[in-house]
Amino acid sequence: MTRSGEEFHAQWISPVAIFPCEGMRDAESEKALAAAFESGEHKRVTRLYRNDEVPAERCWVRASGWCLAYA
Predict the structure, then answer these.
(1) Has residue 59 got a pLDDT over 70?
(2) Is the CB of residue 59 less than 8 Å from the CB of residue 67?
(3) How confident is the model at residue 63 (pLDDT cuts 50, 70, 90)?
(4) How far apart are CA 47 and CA 8, in angstroms?
(5) Is 3 helix (H, G, I), strand (E, B) or coil?
(6) What are phi and psi of 66, to 5 degrees?
(7) Most exposed among 8, 24, 37, 41, judged by the fewest C-beta atoms under 10 Å?
(8) pTM of the predicted model, to two decimals?
(9) DSSP assignment string, 7-63
(10) Torsion of the alpha carbons at 41, 43, 48 and 49, rounded to the nearest 10
(11) 7-45: per-residue pLDDT in tens?
């Protein structure tokens, strides 16, 4: 992820494991990410949006308040 003002640009580099701090896990987001990785297409993701306004067809994965999207 690269932040440019209010925009967040994303680029696939390699797999990674994230270990969140205790009490900050979000079960809904974890389920959405797991399902998205099963479907593929992660290398096409170019943006992180921190709102719910992006149309579903542009989102690779969405959870409440955020979306990883294609362009």
Answers:
(1) yes
(2) yes
(3) confident
(4) 6
(5) strand
(6) -155, 165
(7) 24
(8) 0.67
(9) EEE----------PPTT---HHHHHHHHHHHHH--GGG--EEESSS-S-GGGEEEEE
(10) -30
(11) 988 888 776 666 666 777 778 878 888 888 887 788 889
